[in-house]
Amino acid sequence: MSANNDSIQKTLIVAVLLCLVCAIIVAGAAVSLKPLQVANKVEDKKKNVLAAAGMLQPGVSVEEQFKKITTRIVNLEEGRFATEAELAEIKAAGLDPQKYDQRKASKTPELSKPLSGDEDPASIKRMEKYAEIYMIENNGEIEKIILPIHGYGLWSTLYGFIALKGDMDTIVGLGFYSHAETPGLGGEIDNPSWKAIWEGKEVYDDSGDVAIKVVKGPAEPGNPYQVDGLSGATLTSRGVSSLVRFWVSDRAFGSLLTKLKEQGA
């Protein structure tokens, strides 16, 4: 009986030690790989910014290509670039202004506010105070501006970028880098053919109101404000339309775009 107890005890000790060793190895791997994961995440973000702007060149270093882009943080409520005091506010909330994470900011009470009802057509729930934008400039003039956008589709929150020409109106490109929409249906937002439809479309009508939208079925021929809806994916199409319209409206980037347009006029 004693021998059996000793055997069970030894088995338990070996099992516990094995678990501890495995836990240490896994924890060590997670810690050692974290810098690489962060670097890959940053590079992927830059790659998607370049892709939205139509500037991504295969075979060329992403870092090298991104040197052409100026990154700025903007105050969404007031439609202007953030001040030094506001950058300090971001840092005080635990975020690095040099590596601004808009997703984390939207979940940080000091840097965001809740939205509901009619003020939240994109179903984002919380609106961050600051956003990071990207610009391609030439001799002091903005040639392209790339804006982060997100909102709910059918099954998931879609995260992406929309790029505009320096007129702050004409769309250069649009793309989503994170979503969980149904492959073959809502997932067709990744289809290059559908993304190409956005190129050349106009965001605002002659009165300055947001006019761009994804329609059900094919767009009217020659209509500069309409984008074909995705076949069999009405809710995803509606979600994309709502989130794009929200982010280019005065509730988000609209005021900034208006000011930049006036400065460039």
What's this, in brief?
By secondary structure, the protein is α+β, with helices and mostly antiparallel strands.
Describe the structure.
By secondary structure, the protein is of the alpha+beta class. The chain has one domain (68-264). The chain has 7 helices and 10 strands. The chain has helices spanning 2-52, 62-66, 84-92, 102-106, 192-198, 234-247, 254-264; strands spanning 69-75, 80-81, 112-114, 126-128, 130-138, 141-152, 157-165, 171-178, 213-214, 226-227. Strands 2-1-5-6-7-8 form a 6-stranded antiparallel beta sheet, sandwiched between helices. It is globular. The chain starts with a helix and ends with a helix.
Would you spell out the secondary-structure blueprint of this structure?
Elements: H1 2-52, H2 62-66, E1 69-75, E2 80-81, H3 84-92, H4 102-106, E3 112-114, E4 126-128, E5 130-138, E6 141-152, E7 157-165, E8 171-178, H5 192-198, E9 213-214, E10 226-227, H6 234-247, H7 254-264
Parallel strand pairs: 9-10
Antiparallel strand pairs: 1-2, 1-5, 3-4, 5-6, 6-7, 7-8
Which characteristics define this entry?
alpha+beta; 10 strands; 7 helices; 265 residues; 22% strand; six-stranded antiparallel beta sheet; two-stranded antiparallel sheet
Number of domains: 1
Broad structural category = alpha+beta
Biggest sheet, spatial arrangement of strands: 2-1-5-6-7-8
Write the H/E string, N to C. HHEEHHEEEEEEHEEHH
Average pLDDT works out at 88
Tell me the strand percentage band: 15-25%
| Distance separating the two termini | 93 Å
Label the overall shape: globular
Separate helix tally: 7
Q: Share of helix among residues?
A: 25-40%
**What's the total number of strands?**
10
Low-confidence stretches: none
Main beta sheet: 6 strands, antiparallel
The whole-angstrom Rg is: 23 Å
